[in-house]
């Protein structure tokens, strides 16, 4: 008993369906695999570059924050000794000036708003 079938004048043997890979297909498959590996390595390289840049920027931020913390510690030590650092004096006078400027600008805005409302 032969399990082969005649279809359209050709004899087909039972077995796996579909196309069987030829050597050309194997070469193409290997080339696609190599290309995919190259692209994967390129993506990995870019990802590592991005992460290294991120780490270095965070390290710079940490250094800046440490310097700021050290400055505040020195200010606190100076104030404990009864001295007011000049930077704090400048900040306080700057805040007072900005508050007076904000108050004057609020009065000016309020006057403009009243003038606009009365013209209606």
From TrEMBL:
A cellular-component GO term for this protein: nucleus
Keywords linked to the UniProt accession: Activator, Differentiation, DNA-binding, Nucleus, Transcription, Transcription regulation
Domain BZIP: start-end pairs: 26-75
UniProt-listed GO biological process terms: cell differentiation
Disordered: annotated span: 1-24, 93-120
GO MF term (any one): DNA-binding transcription factor activity
Localization: Nucleus
Top-level lineage group: Eukaryota
Transcription regulation among keywords: yes
Cited InterPro entries: bZIP, bZIP_sf, CREBL2/REPTOR-BP
Residue ranges, compositional bias (Basic residues): 10-21
Regions annotated as coiled coil: none
Record-stated family: Belongs to the bZIP family. ATF subfamily.
Protein name according to UniProt: cAMP-responsive element-binding protein-like 2
Organism the protein comes from: Chrysochloris asiatica (Cape golden mole)
Organism placement in taxonomy: Eukaryota, Metazoa, Chordata, Craniata, Vertebrata
């Amino acid at each position: 008993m032969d399990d082969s079938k005649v279809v359209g004048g050709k004899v087909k043997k039972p077995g796996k369906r579909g196309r069987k890979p030829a050597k050309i297909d194997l070469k193409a498959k290997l080339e696609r695999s190599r290309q995919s590996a190259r692209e994967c390595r390129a993506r990995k390289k870019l990802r590592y570059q991005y992460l290294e840049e991120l780490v270095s920027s965070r390290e710079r931020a940490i250094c800046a924050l440490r310097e700021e913390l050290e400055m505040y510690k020195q200010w606190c030590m100076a104030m404990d000794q009864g001295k007011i650092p000049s930077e704090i004096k400048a900040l306080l006078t700057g805040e007072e000036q900005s508050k007076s400027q904000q108050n004057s600008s609020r009065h000016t805005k309020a006057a403009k708003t009243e003038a606009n409302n009365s013209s209606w």
